[in-house]
Design brief:
Layout: E1 15-22, E2 27-33, E3 42-48, E4 54-60, E5 67-73, E6 76-81, E7 85-89, E8 96-100, E9 106-111, E10 116-121, E11 125-130, E12 135-136, E13 140-141, E14 148-154, E15 157-162, E16 165-170, E17 173-179
Antiparallel strand pairs: 1-2, 2-3, 3-4, 5-6, 6-7, 7-8, 9-10, 10-11, 11-12, 11-13, 14-15, 15-16, 16-17
Protein name: NHL repeat protein
Organism: Ancylostoma caninum (Dog hookworm)
GO molecular function: RNA binding
Length: 184
Protein backbone atom coordinates (compact mmCIF):
# COMPACT_ATOMS: atom_id res chain seq x y z
CA UNK A 1 0.00 0.00 0.00
CA UNK A 2 1.39 3.39 -0.99
CA UNK A 3 0.24 6.23 1.26
CA UNK A 4 1.91 9.24 -0.31
CA UNK A 5 4.18 9.76 -3.28
CA UNK A 6 6.18 13.01 -3.38
CA UNK A 7 8.76 14.07 -5.94
CA UNK A 8 10.82 16.14 -3.48
CA UNK A 9 11.37 13.47 -0.80
CA UNK A 10 13.47 10.33 -1.24
CA UNK A 11 15.13 7.80 1.02
CA UNK A 12 18.44 7.79 -0.88
CA UNK A 13 21.06 10.47 -0.29
CA UNK A 14 21.20 13.66 -2.33
CA UNK A 15 24.40 15.26 -3.57
CA UNK A 16 25.21 18.89 -2.87
CA UNK A 17 25.48 20.50 -6.29
CA UNK A 18 25.84 24.23 -5.56
CA UNK A 19 25.80 26.63 -2.61
CA UNK A 20 25.50 30.32 -1.82
CA UNK A 21 25.96 32.40 1.33
CA UNK A 22 24.33 35.72 2.18
CA UNK A 23 26.59 37.10 4.88
CA UNK A 24 24.28 39.99 5.82
CA UNK A 25 21.29 37.71 6.47
CA UNK A 26 23.39 34.86 7.83
CA UNK A 27 21.88 32.38 5.38
CA UNK A 28 23.35 29.40 3.54
CA UNK A 29 21.43 27.78 0.70
CA UNK A 30 22.39 24.43 -0.77
CA UNK A 31 20.96 22.82 -3.90
CA UNK A 32 20.56 19.08 -3.57
CA UNK A 33 20.40 16.70 -6.55
CA UNK A 34 18.09 13.73 -6.21
CA UNK A 35 19.67 11.83 -9.08
CA UNK A 36 16.44 10.32 -10.38
CA UNK A 37 14.44 11.31 -13.43
CA UNK A 38 11.16 11.38 -11.53
CA UNK A 39 12.44 13.55 -8.67
CA UNK A 40 12.84 17.30 -8.52
CA UNK A 41 15.92 18.88 -7.00
CA UNK A 42 15.47 20.97 -3.86
CA UNK A 43 17.10 23.88 -2.05
CA UNK A 44 17.85 23.56 1.64
CA UNK A 45 18.13 26.78 3.63
CA UNK A 46 20.22 27.08 6.78
CA UNK A 47 20.72 29.87 9.30
CA UNK A 48 24.39 30.43 10.13
CA UNK A 49 24.60 31.09 13.86
CA UNK A 50 28.38 31.39 14.11
CA UNK A 51 31.39 30.38 12.03
CA UNK A 52 30.60 26.66 11.94
CA UNK A 53 27.16 26.27 13.54
CA UNK A 54 24.18 26.12 11.16
CA UNK A 55 20.52 25.36 11.81
CA UNK A 56 18.27 23.92 9.10
CA UNK A 57 15.39 26.32 8.44
CA UNK A 58 13.41 25.00 5.50
CA UNK A 59 13.36 23.14 2.21
CA UNK A 60 12.41 25.08 -0.90
CA UNK A 61 10.83 22.91 -3.59
CA UNK A 62 10.79 24.82 -6.89
CA UNK A 63 8.99 21.84 -8.50
CA UNK A 64 10.78 22.67 -11.74
CA UNK A 65 13.14 19.76 -12.40
CA UNK A 66 16.93 19.89 -12.14
CA UNK A 67 18.73 22.79 -10.44
CA UNK A 68 22.10 23.74 -11.92
CA UNK A 69 23.14 26.76 -9.82
CA UNK A 70 21.99 28.87 -6.90
CA UNK A 71 22.89 32.43 -5.86
CA UNK A 72 21.66 35.36 -3.80
CA UNK A 73 20.63 38.54 -5.62
CA UNK A 74 19.83 41.19 -3.05
CA UNK A 75 17.81 39.32 -0.46
CA UNK A 76 16.34 36.80 -2.90
CA UNK A 77 17.44 33.26 -3.75
CA UNK A 78 17.76 32.46 -7.46
CA UNK A 79 18.27 29.01 -8.93
CA UNK A 80 18.70 28.05 -12.57
CA UNK A 81 17.13 25.03 -14.23
CA UNK A 82 17.77 22.71 -17.14
CA UNK A 83 14.60 23.95 -18.85
CA UNK A 84 16.01 27.50 -19.16
CA UNK A 85 13.99 29.00 -16.35
CA UNK A 86 14.93 30.73 -13.11
CA UNK A 87 13.16 30.24 -9.80
CA UNK A 88 13.16 33.25 -7.47
CA UNK A 89 12.47 32.43 -3.81
CA UNK A 90 12.07 34.60 -0.74
CA UNK A 91 14.15 33.25 2.18
CA UNK A 92 11.64 34.68 4.70
CA UNK A 93 8.40 33.32 3.20
CA UNK A 94 7.09 30.56 0.96
CA UNK A 95 6.88 32.92 -2.03
CA UNK A 96 8.28 31.41 -5.25
CA UNK A 97 8.27 32.96 -8.72
CA UNK A 98 9.37 31.38 -12.00
CA UNK A 99 10.76 33.32 -14.98
CA UNK A 100 11.50 31.70 -18.34
CA UNK A 101 14.83 33.13 -19.54
CA UNK A 102 15.62 30.99 -22.59
CA UNK A 103 14.77 27.60 -24.12
CA UNK A 104 18.14 25.97 -23.30
CA UNK A 105 19.70 24.93 -19.96
CA UNK A 106 21.13 27.66 -17.73
CA UNK A 107 24.42 26.36 -16.32
CA UNK A 108 25.59 29.11 -13.98
CA UNK A 109 24.39 32.29 -12.28
CA UNK A 110 25.67 35.25 -10.29
CA UNK A 111 24.50 38.57 -8.90
CA UNK A 112 25.50 41.64 -10.89
CA UNK A 113 24.04 44.00 -8.27
CA UNK A 114 21.10 43.95 -5.83
CA UNK A 115 18.49 43.81 -8.62
CA UNK A 116 20.22 42.11 -11.58
CA UNK A 117 21.45 38.57 -12.16
CA UNK A 118 23.62 37.11 -14.93
CA UNK A 119 23.21 33.62 -16.43
CA UNK A 120 25.09 31.59 -19.02
CA UNK A 121 23.28 29.05 -21.14
CA UNK A 122 23.91 25.94 -23.18
CA UNK A 123 23.20 28.09 -26.26
CA UNK A 124 26.48 29.99 -25.55
CA UNK A 125 24.69 33.17 -24.50
CA UNK A 126 24.82 35.56 -21.55
CA UNK A 127 21.48 36.71 -20.15
CA UNK A 128 20.81 39.50 -17.63
CA UNK A 129 17.58 39.39 -15.60
CA UNK A 130 16.17 42.56 -14.03
CA UNK A 131 14.41 41.56 -10.80
CA UNK A 132 12.44 44.81 -10.55
CA UNK A 133 10.20 44.02 -13.52
CA UNK A 134 11.35 40.44 -14.32
CA UNK A 135 12.57 41.28 -17.82
CA UNK A 136 15.47 39.64 -19.62
CA UNK A 137 17.95 41.77 -21.56
CA UNK A 138 18.90 41.03 -25.13
CA UNK A 139 21.18 37.98 -24.93
CA UNK A 140 24.85 38.35 -25.76
CA UNK A 141 25.81 35.44 -28.01
CA UNK A 142 29.41 34.32 -27.66
CA UNK A 143 29.49 32.02 -30.69
CA UNK A 144 28.02 28.63 -31.47
CA UNK A 145 31.47 27.06 -31.11
CA UNK A 146 31.71 28.11 -27.42
CA UNK A 147 30.81 26.01 -24.42
CA UNK A 148 30.08 28.21 -21.39
CA UNK A 149 30.46 26.82 -17.87
CA UNK A 150 30.57 29.61 -15.29
CA UNK A 151 29.88 33.28 -14.72
CA UNK A 152 30.90 35.81 -12.06
CA UNK A 153 30.56 39.55 -11.73
CA UNK A 154 32.03 42.55 -10.01
CA UNK A 155 29.71 45.49 -10.56
CA UNK A 156 29.50 46.12 -14.32
CA UNK A 157 32.25 43.68 -15.33
CA UNK A 158 31.17 40.09 -15.99
CA UNK A 159 33.59 37.19 -16.50
CA UNK A 160 32.42 34.05 -18.30
CA UNK A 161 34.34 30.79 -18.14
CA UNK A 162 34.35 28.74 -21.34
CA UNK A 163 36.34 25.88 -22.83
CA UNK A 164 39.98 27.09 -22.90
CA UNK A 165 38.99 30.76 -22.54
CA UNK A 166 37.56 33.48 -20.32
CA UNK A 167 35.38 36.23 -21.75
CA UNK A 168 35.35 39.64 -20.07
CA UNK A 169 32.07 41.45 -20.75
CA UNK A 170 31.37 45.13 -20.13
CA UNK A 171 28.27 47.09 -21.27
CA UNK A 172 26.79 43.92 -22.83
CA UNK A 173 29.74 43.52 -25.21
CA UNK A 174 32.85 41.36 -25.11
CA UNK A 175 35.69 43.61 -23.97
CA UNK A 176 38.32 40.87 -24.04
CA UNK A 177 38.74 37.17 -24.67
CA UNK A 178 41.55 35.57 -22.72
CA UNK A 179 42.76 32.24 -24.08
CA UNK A 180 43.84 29.85 -21.37
CA UNK A 181 46.45 27.45 -22.78
CA UNK A 182 46.07 23.74 -22.24
CA UNK A 183 48.79 21.95 -20.33
CA UNK A 184 50.30 19.01 -22.14
Amino acid sequence: MEVEKRRDVRIEGKTVHSMAIHEGMGKLVVSRKNGANFSDDVIEQYSILCGWLCVHEKVICPDNGGIESVCFVGDRILCTHLNGSVTIADPHSDSIRRVQVCPSPLWSSCAVDATHAAFVSHSASLFILDLKDYTVSTPLGLGVDQRLFSVCSQKDVIAIGAMDSVFIVKNNAVARKMVVPRKV
